[in-house]
Amino acid sequence: MIDDILNQIKDGKLSVEDAKKQLNSFENLGFAKVDHNRKERTGFPEVIYGEGKTPEQIISIIKAMQSRNDDVLATRVSKEKADVILQQLPECSYSEIARVLYWKEDKPLQTKEDRYIAIICAGTSDLAVAEEAALTAELFGSRVHRIYDVGVAGLHRLLHHLEEIQGATVSVVIAGMEGALASVVGGLVSHPVIAVPTSVGYGANLQGISTLLAMLNSCSSGTSVVNIDNGFGGAYNAVMIDRIARGMAID
Question: Which BP terms does GO give this entry (predicted)?
């Protein structure tokens, strides 16, 4: 990036002032500092966490990112907020079930390789977290296979997809209740499994605490666990694994 900017200055295509703006590590909006260089450092653009932010704040951040052609991914955006945002930014897209709002200059990259991430969801009640994971992975450039409603209460449903699951580079397994699905998948595959506990379950589930502890105690080696309802975090890690498998750790 720095070499490109310096060459543009040398060729007279970029002014010193404009170069300074591009080299700034962040843009100060007063209420937020937008990290434009994050993709250069980590391979992923900054992601907006929508909870606790007003629609106006989210709109300002998105406009700042669009001005630098940064891909936009905003998680945990309620439909009420999204309706306000889309009135001013109709080019953005919104998934109500995932509560994800996004904008990408080009269509999400679907690689022509056979590699893909399996997003495996135990039950319909877990779909919001599963779709947050699936959309995150797709927007970050990975192919995704959605395998939904295959919880352990009907194990034959999971086994019906076994060959497809085993062919994945990495699996993200989303489940509530006792969280057993992650351990089952971990015992059937030779690739990493990222377990995402959800807050779905009756009283003793404790809003996902018991699921989290069960997944942390999994006896299936190769299983790692992210926080409760954190489909975004599970997908982020899965995309990193997928990129390394494709020989492109940084996009």
Answer: 'de novo' IMP biosynthetic process
pLDDT tens track for 28-54: 788 888 887 787 778 888 899 999 999
Measured distance CA(212)–CA(219) in Å, rounded: 14
Q: Residue 164's domain spans which residues?
A: 117-245
Q: How far apart are CA 156 and CA 150, in angstroms?
A: 8
Contact indicator for 105, 69 with CB cutoff of 8 Å: yes
Judged by phi (left if over 0) then psi (alpha if -120 to 50, else beta), residue 23 lies in: alpha
Q: Are residues 123 and 237 in the same domain?
A: yes
3 state DSSP class of 195:
strand
Q: Structure pTM?
A: 0.84
SS3 93: strand
